[in-house]
Structure to design on (303 residues):
């Protein structure tokens, strides 16, 4: 790379857009920010638009606080105000925002929307969740694992549950970081085969077999936002995939429990596990802030 050339891509739409050294740089920066309780000026005088079609606790709060900690400002715009693709075409929204702000973080229903924003905005765009990917969550997950185990290479992560956007980003991150992933999900809920192949991930239907020897057991909700009409079918299909203390015992004493939250107790996990000694759930939530700061500092601030 030439002198002064950024290690980051123009946008962060998915983890696969990163190179291994770019991923490592983000994690190192996030770890430094956390250790030093960092406050900086990378976003001094700059504004980030938070364009959200879906509700949020962790993503909205951490991005707003991240911008503030870097000396910048965040403007929150929800779907009622903007009406992406309904009140106004996505590319028109992008072209307008690109004239006013220095970056956009978008939490959208369809991945095509965040891709179109990146195409037309003329400023860096961060995918703050789409139906296909959740890169900010995967970054926080890797930081949490590295904190707990001191490394990523060679770790074994068992994912029990729906093959959704969170798992897609985890698989992409695992491929870059050298984490072994075992997926346990009912038939018909697997992640895309190409993502499994790229990560070298294996599929094991029986959750108790899947978690054996795992360093981390990860789950997420069975019914994501926008899938509410499928609730009863999903609850039936995922019966037996709840993460319980007994399932954690099958993993072994070394295993930590991970969840991106919010949790639906009694479905994908029981409350006893989330608040149990193996849980790093709230470390993950905290690390959403530090990794968001790293992404904004680099993409928008040019750190």
């Amino acid at each position: 790379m030439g002198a002064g050339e950024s290690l980051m891509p123009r946008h962060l739409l998915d983890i696969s857009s990163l190179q291994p050294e770019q991923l490592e740089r983000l994690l190192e920066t996030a770890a430094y920010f956390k250790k030093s309780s960092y406050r900086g000026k990378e976003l001094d005088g700059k504004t980030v638009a938070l364009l959200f079609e879906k509700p949020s606790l962790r993503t909205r709060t951490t991005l707003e606080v991240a911008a503030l900690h870097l000396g910048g400002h965040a403007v929150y715009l929800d779907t009622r105000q903007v009406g992406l693709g309904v009140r106004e075409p996505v590319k028109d929204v992008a072209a307008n925002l690109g004239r006013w702000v220095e970056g956009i973080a978008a939490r959208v229903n369809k991945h095509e929307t965040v891709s179109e924003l990146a195409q037309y905005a003329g400023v860096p765009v961060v995918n703050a969740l789409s139906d296909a990917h959740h890169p900010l969550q995967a970054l926080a997950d890797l930081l949490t694992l590295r904190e707990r185990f001191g490394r990523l290479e060679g770790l074994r992560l068992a994912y029990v549950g729906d093959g959704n956007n969170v798992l897609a980003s985890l698989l992409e991150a695992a491929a870059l970081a050298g984490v072994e992933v075992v997926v346990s999900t009912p038939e018909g809920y697997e992640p895309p085969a190409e993502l499994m192949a790229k990560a070298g991930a294996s599929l094991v239907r029986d959750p108790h077999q899947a978690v054996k020897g795992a360093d981390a057991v990860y789950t997420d909700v069975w019914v994501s936002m926008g899938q509410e009409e499928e609730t009863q079918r999903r609850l039936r299909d995922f019966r037996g995939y709840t993460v319980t203390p007994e399932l954690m015992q099958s993993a072994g004493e070394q295993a930590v429990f991970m969840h991106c939250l919010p949790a639906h107790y009694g479905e994908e996990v029981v409350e006893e596990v989330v608040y149990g000694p193996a849980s790093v759930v709230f470390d993950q939530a905290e690390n959403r802030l530090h990794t968001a700061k790293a992404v904004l500092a680099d993409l928008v601030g040019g750190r």
